[in-house]
Design goal:
The protein is globular, with a radius of gyration of 13 Å. The protein starts with a strand and ends with a helix. The protein contains five helices and seven strands. Strands 2-1-3-6-7 form a five-stranded parallel β-sheet, sandwiched between helices. The relative contact order is 0.18. α1 links the parallel β1 and β2. The chain has 123 residues and is α/β, with parallel strands linked by helices.
């Protein structure tokens, strides 16, 4: 059964490109949304295996969304990867204190990169 993924990003173009890329790599994208409210609703309804969260969601903050998703999940915390076009070092401290599994730059996004992160987290 393929990995089920929710993409949360405020860029329509990125959501479409990421969906196409991930689906080509065998990941089932169960939702691609742009806001915290949509992300929480989609998470409740579809219970994805993985959530990709953009750090900068325009008026909203991806770090806050990660915390909300963990609160929402209760005993079954989601596997979350933070994504951004910004350099990881720009947010290193916030990434380190976040419950997210990892950070992945948008240019490096691929099914293979996600698999490597998940394998590392499960080890």
């Amino acid at each position: 059964m393929p990995l089920r993924c929710l993409i949360v990003d405020d860029s329509d173009h990125f959501r479409q490109a990421a969906r196409l890329l991930l689906e080509t790599d065998g990941i089932a994208v169960v939702g691609a949304v742009s806001s915290t409210a949509e992300a929480l609703r989609c998470f409740r309804e579809r219970r994805p295996d993985l959530v990709l969260v953009d750090i900068d969601l325009g008026e909203e903050n991806g770090f806050d969304l990660v915390l909300r998703l963990y609160e929402e999940a209760g005993d079954r915390p989601p596997r979350i990867i933070l994504i951004s076009t910004y350099d990881e070092q720009d947010f290193a401290e916030m990434i380190a204190t976040s419950p997210a599994l990892a950070f992945l730059s948008k240019p490096r996004l691929s099914g293979r990169a996600i698999d490597e992160i998940l394998r590392g987290a499960d080890a």
